[in-house]
Amino acid sequence: MSVLAVAGSVLAMDLLLFVVAGAVLFDRPALGGARGRVGSRLREISPYLVVLAVVLLVNRVARDAGPDLSWVIGWNITDELYAIEGTLVATIQSVQSPLLTQYFSFVYLPGYVFLLTFPPVLYFCCRDPRPLKETILAFTLNYSLGLVCYVLFISYGPRNLLPEAVEPLLYSTYPDTQVLTGEVNSNSNVFPSLHTSLSVTTATLAVRHHDAYPKWTPVAIWGAVSVCLATMYLGIHWGTDVAAGIVLGVGSVWLAGQVVDWEEGR
Question: Helix crossing, 3-25 with 177-184: angle to 10°?
């Protein structure tokens, strides 16, 4: 199956999630007000969007050159990650079942994309521009700091280091998904887990701005916890990668809040 076909399937599932979440979280007055603020909102967030666009462009270029540069630097921390936690991921996989594999595979791909793309839409409709500013900036920080780590460190996931003990459950169950994931990352870049950090960022922002959309908070927390578990259950990340991702996610939200405070003169 081609990359476009796999991406199309993921996007179709995300569209369904958007429709369901939108029906629950949005109301007509809020949508009407958001339509009236489109121009002013875009002007308010334009500096943040420019910075994010630059970071994503750099990330796209670095994705090709990064692995080679990592080997020049030569900081392979895979053995250190294994020394910290040993067979934790194999232990997590010991409870595997077809149902769990289906659930965590769904969470890892369309579920993660939903957690990444829905908050900007949700907060765009919020009367206060601050949640959207913090979301864009926190995502930017995640990508920036994650890219630095991916260039500095060579780190292979548990399925690569321990093939006899850890199964690549996502790819063995749904082989076509490797076509898509291979386009966005290298198997030597697992520290920290950006799946974790960005999902935790979404959940942290949901808690931080709970009053704006209280129904979104439990959904975001459930999604983030599920993503954290999915990365290990599927054999993609070490527990250490997940822990580092949690720190990166929470730290990015805190730092984004400080920057927005400064920008708004608080």
Answer: 90
| Measured distance CA(158)–CA(229) in Å, rounded | 14
Q: How many residues does the chain have?
A: 266
Do residues 215 and 162 touch, judged by C-beta distance below 8 A?
no
Bond into 192 cis (ω within 30): yes
DSSP state letters, 104-131: HHHIIIIIHHHHHHHHHHHHHTSSSSHH
- Which pLDDT score is estimated for 194? 93
Residue 28 pLDDT greater than 70, yes or no? no
**Looking at the predicted structure, is the pLDDT value of residue 184 above 70?**
no
Whole-prediction pTM: 0.90
Distances (CA, A) of 223 to 6, 131, 195, 230: 22, 19, 11, 10
> Phi/psi at 155 (nearest 5 deg)?
-150, 120
Q: Which residues contact 210 (CB under 8 A, 6 or more apart)?
A: 217
* DSSP SS3 for 237: coil
Q: Band of the pLDDT at 42, cuts 50, 70, 90?
A: confident
> What does the pLDDT read at residue 30?
63
State how far the Cα of 55 lies from the Cα of 91, in Å rounded to an integer. Answer: 37
